[in-house]
Design brief:
The chain is mostly helical. It contains six helices and no strands. The longest helix is centred in the middle third of the chain and has 18 residues.
């Protein structure tokens, strides 16, 4: 799938999905901390497609990495990052078989700097 064939998440969709997710989970601490950091993370998959010829799996890895490391939300950064990654994969016909526990552990590995984009990409390939 080339960058032109990929369905990307835009800023408004990301914010809407963040709010819906947090409300669904009964969270009270959520919202946009930095629009620029959200937009930066959302641009990462497109840049990976253009500059690395990245496929959907690699693009999803760059997306979740950027969202986790940027901390662009007031609360729920890891939950929103994994949710948006799953949405991106779903839109692009990439079936993810990861459990909630798998996603949680991946997010913690990224947050603790144990995993970078390459490790996330490999993990995603094992979960499809």
């Amino acid at each position: 799938m080339t960058g032109e064939d990929v369905s990307y998440i835009d800023y408004v969709e990301a914010v809407d999905l963040h709010f819906a997710l947090m409300k669904m989970r009964g969270e009270t601490r959520f919202g946009v901390e930095s629009r620029d950091l959200i937009e930066s993370a959302l641009a990462r998959p497109k840049h990976a497609a253009i500059y690395e010829n990245a496929d959907v799996g690699r693009q999803a890895a760059t997306l979740v990495f950027g969202l986790i490391k940027n901390h662009p939300w007031t609360g729920g950064n890891k939950r929103t990052a994994s949710f948006l990654m799953e949405e991106f994969l779903f839109r692009n016909n990439f079936e993810l078989t990861a459990t909630s526990k798998d996603l949680y552990e991946m997010c913690l590995a990224v947050e603790s700097d144990a995993w970078k984009v390459d490790e996330i990409e490999n993990w995603l390939r094992d979960k499809k």
